[in-house]
């Protein structure tokens, strides 16, 4: 089972803006990180799950990792955002590991994540310890 990671969709004003990040550009998307994850080999076949408003909203499959000239690392992602069942997730800096058994399921075609439970409701229910 692959290992995943989570990252905040920093700077996004809406879910639609997060989706727009994946609409144009080269085949792969690259994010910069200071250090190579120690468990990077376990992430083969894994995904980066995006957090927006304290909720996991989608995932991008991880292609791999590549060192930059300045010593930092690229996290290389497929340029697609797969919507997932909304799941509460606390904010954090940088990225964090996410075990496969803790990862939310992908949404089926035609399933609307806001119809299931809006992100703000998931966040509020999580604060109360109800989800």
UniProtKB/TrEMBL annotation:
InterPro entries with a match to the protein in the record: UCP032025
Pfam families assigned: DUF1489 (PF07370)
Name under which the protein is recorded: DUF1489 domain-containing protein
Organism: Altererythrobacter arenosus
